[in-house]
Amino acid sequence: MRQGPLAGRYPAVAAMVTLALIPYLALSAAVDPLVPIISEQLSLSAQTMSLGFGLGNAAYAVGTVLAVQFAQHLPQRRMLLAYAVVLVLGSVIAASAVNGAMFIGGHILQGLATSMLLIAAAPPLTIGFPRDKLRHTAVIMNMCVFGAVALGPFIGGAQAEALAWRPLFWIVAGVAVLALIMAALTFEDAPPADLDAPRDLRAIALASVGCAAAFIGAAQLTSHGFTDPAVIVPILGGLALIVVLIAYQFKAARPLLTVRTMLTSSIPVAGVGVALFAAAASVAATALTAEVFMQTYSPVRVGLLYLPELGGAIVMAFVFGAVISKRSMHYLPLVGMGLLAAGIVMFRLAIPANQPLALIASALTGLALGATVAPALFVAGFSLQSNSLQRVFAIIELLRAVAAFMVAPIFAHFAATAAGGLTAGAGDALWVGFGLAIGGAIFGVAVYVLSGARPQTPDLDQFLDGESPAWYSPPLLARLRPGLPAPIRVPSRDRRPTASEANAMSVAATGPVLFAYDGTARAASAIERAAAELPIGRDAVVVCVWQPVDVGFTPVETTHFDADQATEVRRAAEQTAAHGAALATRASFSARSATVEAAPIWKGIVETAQEHNASLIVVGPHRRSGLLGHLEGSVAGAVVAHSTTPVLVIPEDCRRSSCAEGAAHSNIHAVAAGSMADRE
C-alpha cells in the first residue's frame, strides 16, 4: 500500500487533523469585528455579507453528509487529500478576493472542506490507534474545535485594530497549506469503507436544500423582520426538511447516517441533547456580549476580554483526556452545563462594561464548552459500535452546526431590535441562554433516570475492536415502557493472541524468512523471486499487517468488508496472509501465515520479525513517481532503517532470470542490519 513517510505516526496524524480543523473554526469566531472592513473594501452590503457567512455555515453542515457518502465508495485517504486541496483553494480565493463573489465562494469552500476533513480524519485518529492514544485524541479534538473558537475573538480583534483583514486570511491559507502537506506526508492508501452501501442521493438532497434554506433564512434577518416571509418561510422550510431527513434515515433499511440506533438508545440521546443545548446556549454568552462590549472598548480590548475562554478550554481539554477512560466521564457534561449557566450569569452582570466580571465569565464559558460538547459527543459515540463513529459524527455535527450557527443570527436580531436597545436585548438573550443551559442539564439527567441508564467505566478495548459499544445503553425511556426484554450484555471476549502466540513453535537455528505480504502483485512477485535466491524448503512466515479504518493491505478476497469494523478487517487480513502463505508454499517454502495489528506498517513487520526470530525479512517496494511519489515514504525503506534483521528488498521490475544470476548482477538489494541507533 502506498504511504507517506509519516504514515501511521500518531503525532504527525494528530498534527494533520489539528491543522485541518483550525482555519475555518477559528475564522468563524474571529470574523465578526472584521465584517465592516471587509464590506467596505469589497463593496458588500451587510445583508450580502451575512448571506455569504450563512452559506459558508450551510456548506459546513452539508459537508458532513457528503463526506460519509464519499467514504463508502471512494478511497478514503485519497479523498482526505482532495478535501485538503479544496480547503487550500477556498482559503486562497477568500484571501485574494477582489470582489464579493470571490470572497463568498472561497468562504463556502472553506466551510465545506473543513467539515469533510473532520468526518474523514477524526474517526481514524480516534479508532485507528491503540487505546493508550485515545486520551491524547480527546484533548486534541477538544482543542481543535473549542480552542480554535475560543482564540477567534482575540485574533479578530487584533486584526480589526490594524484596519485590515487579508493578513489573517492569508495566515489561514498558510495553515491550510500545512494541513495539505501533512495529509500527504501521513498518506496511507485505504479502500472505500463499504462498496455495498447505497448511494443515498435523497439524503444528500434533503441535507443540502434543508441546510441552505435554513441558513439563508436566518441570514435574511440582517435586513428583514423575523415574521417577514423572506425569513420565516426558508427557516421553517429548511428545518422541516432536516426533520424529514432524520425521519427518512430512521426508517431506511440501509441508512447513510446512524440515526435509528442513536435515537432509540438512552445515553446517545442524552449526549446529543446536551451538546445541542450547550451549542445554542453558548451563542448568547459570546457573540452577543461581544457586540455590547464593542460599544465601549476597542476590538483588540474586547478580544482580550475573551482570552480567558481559551485558557478554560485548554484546562478542560486535559481534564477530559484524564477522565475519558473512567466512569466519571459521564458527569463531565453535567458539570459543564453548570459552568455554562454560571458563565452566562456572570456575563449578564458584566454588560455593558464590567471588565473583571467579563474575564471571569469568559473563563467559566471556556471551561463549560470544553466540558460539554466534545465529552457529550464521545459519551454518545461510546454507546454505539466504533464502526459507526463516522456516521455518528456526521449527523451530530450537522445538528450542532444548525444549533450553533443558525441560532446566532436569530439571537442577534432580537437583541438588536429590543425596545430597550442592544444592551437590554442582549441581557434578555442571556437569560434565554441561561434557561437553555439549565434545561440541557435537566434533559440529560431526566433521560438517564427515565431510561435506567447509569454511569459506567468504558470498555475501550471492546469498543476499539468494533465488536460492541464501550458500555451498555438502555433503550430510550425504558422505565416508562414496560415489556421491554431484559438487557443482555455480551461479555467481553478474550483478545486474540498476538502473531507470535498464535504461531508459537520452535524455529530452526537460522530462523525463518519473514515475508511482508500486503496482497499486491508486487508482494507476490517478491515471494516468487526470493525463492530463486534461498534454499528450497526454508521455513517462512508470511505476515499481513493491518489497521482499522486505513486497512493497510489489499484484500485478496472480492467480498466487501467494513473498514471501520476491526473484526472484519482482521478477518480479511487473515485471508490475505493465508493466500500469501499458499504462494510461498508453492514457491518451495515451508510457510505459515501471521497477522498483526500495527501502525505504522513497518513497525508491525519489524516487531513480527523479532518475535519469530526471523533471519531475513523480504519486502517488495512500490514504484514511486510524480510529486506525491517524492513525498511518499517507503515501507521497505522504513523496515531497512529500523530493523536489526537483514532485509532483502526486491524491486517490482526484478526479473526471475536476473535474480537467479546472483546479487552482483541482479536487482535484488540485500541490506545487512545494523543497530537501530545508527540508522536513526
TrEMBL record:
InterPro entries: MFS, MFS_dom, MFS_trans_sf, Rossmann-like_a/b/a_fold, Universal_stress_UspA, UspA
Keyword Membrane: yes
Keywords: Membrane, Transmembrane, Transmembrane helix, Transport
Keyword Metal-binding on entry: no
SUPFAM superfamilies: Adenine nucleotide alpha hydrolases-like, MFS general substrate transporter
Domain of life of the organism encoding this protein: Bacteria
Protein's cellular compartments: Cell membrane
Topology of the protein relative to the lipid bilayer: Multi-pass membrane protein
Start and end residues of each Major facilitator superfamily (MFS) profile domain: 12-458
GO cellular component, one term: plasma membrane
Molecular functions per Gene Ontology: transmembrane transporter activity
Sequence intervals crossing the membrane: 12-31, 51-68, 80-102, 108-127, 139-156, 168-187, 199-219, 231-250, 262-285, 305-324, 331-351, 357-380, 392-417, 429-450
Family assignment from sequence similarity: Belongs to the universal stress protein A family.
Classification via PANTHER family: MAJOR FACILITATOR SUPERFAMILY MULTIDRUG TRANSPORTER MFSC
Protein name, UniProt field: Universal stress protein UspA-like protein
Species this chain originates from: Mycolicibacterium fortuitum (Mycobacterium fortuitum)
